[in-house]
Each structure stands twice: as structure tokens, then as C-alpha cells.
Amino acid sequence: MTEPHSDPDMPATATEATPERREHGAIAETGLLGRAIDAVGVIFALGIIASALILLNEVVLRYGFDSPTIWAHETTIFLCAMAFVYGGLYCVVRNSHIRVVLIYDMVTGRAKRILDAVISLICLFAAAFFAWAAYGMVMKAVFRPGGEIHFETSGSAWDPPFPAWLKIFLFTVLCLMVVQFIIMAVNYLRGAFKGDAQ
Prior knowledge:
The chain is mainly α and 198 residues long. It contains five helices and no strands. Residues 1-21 are annotated as: Disordered.
């Protein structure tokens, strides 16, 4: 006997073959880290809303009162950049990233889980490579050649340290991505080689 599922057009066997299928949220294979990453995503969504409100405020101040700010443009760029960087990690835990499915959709069961593990390992190495490259950027953005700490700034009239903060955030997200892909690869392989896997 099969349990009811949300999609009446999809047979129950298809739902059982892909246990990571869900309406929203992180897939099961991402574990506790994936659920945390998914929950934190709302903060960056609020950042997008905040950037829209800041721009609206800037339009009113500039054209209504002839008194523009020096911080609105850089703040909105920073908030949107943070959201876009986090968006990559967010898509990973929700399994909503773009992929070519020509071969992927031809396999099922154990073969699909093994393919998921292989894809996770390939993504792991790619994320690790980019994290290594980002580490070099962070070192240049945070430390002067003499070794003293000095955060890179934008060079504008306001001159916030947003460039350094964004590079640190990018490096952190890439490191989290590496850990997340390890967790996913292990969980996919566990699922593939369970006694009842086919």
C-alpha cells in the first residue's frame, strides 16, 4: 500500500523512487546544515526588500528634496551582491540549480543516486577550487603588504569596507558549499547502497 502524495498526475512509484522530492525547503540529503542554510535564506530575501526601500528613499530625497545620500547606491549594491552570492548555496540545498538532464533523466533508483553522488563530488572540487581562489582575494582585501589589517574600501566619498566584506562572505559561502557537497555525496552513496536500494 502506498501513501498519498500531492501530485495526482504522478504515480506513487515515481514519488517513492525519488525520496528527495518535496514542495519546498532543503532536500533530505543535505542534512542539518542544509536545513540551516535554507532557513537563513529569508534574511537575504529581506535584504533585497531593504535595498528596494533604500532606493525608493533615495529617489524621494534626490528628486523630492534635492538632498541625495552618499550611501544608498553602494548599500543596495552590497545587499544585492550578498543575496546573489548566498543564492548559489541556497540553490544547492534545494536541488534547484540548473543542470543538463539528458543522461540524468534516463536512470533511476541506485544508478540515479550514484550519479547524484558523482555530481556532488565534481561540484565539491569546483567549489574547493573557487574557495582557494577566493582565499587569495580575501588576503589582499583584508591585509596590507606589511601584514597589518586594513579592510579594502570602495574608494567613494562614503568609502565603506563593502568590497572586503563581500570577498570574505564569498569565501565563507564557498567553504560552506564544499562541506555541503561532502555531506550530500556521503548521503547519496548511503542511499544507493542500502539493502533495499535498486
